[in-house]
User: What shape does this take?
Amino acid sequence: MSQKKIQSPAEIADKAMQYIAIGVFLLALAQACSALIFFVGEDMAVLLGYAKIGFGILAVIVVFPQFLRLTRLKMNMQSGCAEPEGFIIDVYKRAAERAFAFTFVFLVFMDYMTRNSWSDLPTEFVIDLILAASLAFFSLSFFVFNRAGDTDEGEDDFDQVQGQ
Assistant: This one.
């Protein structure tokens, strides 16, 4: 008989956060395709338009089932229970904070560049570039923080002998 392992709320939330970060990266690629359309020929612009739609659909396919699982989890949790905690949720929050800060730094850079040397760029391109950079930074920092947390380098408190 096959027994399905029952996942804890934290495990469900952690897995959902990982898929959401992948979906955000796919959206960043879609925005990058949208920004690149301004610099390529007509044939390539059509292909980039299809790629943008494909990345968007793929993001929905990746994120929507996880969204449903999280919604079901929140509905099934008792009202007195707190939000599920976990390492991945903390990583997700840290990545969101860094992406928020990066977005402001990038906006200052883009403000300077559009006032001086990039003044002839279309507004749509600048907005697509800002969105692509912000989404990409969030998803990449999520995976960097997640990867950095996986290596404990033997720093387990329970392995140490007391008094040493």
Remarks:
- The chain is about 75% helix and 0% strand.
- Residues 42-76 form the longest helix (35 residues).
- The two ends are 48 Å apart (CA to CA).
- Helices lie at 9-36, 42-76, 87-115, 123-150.
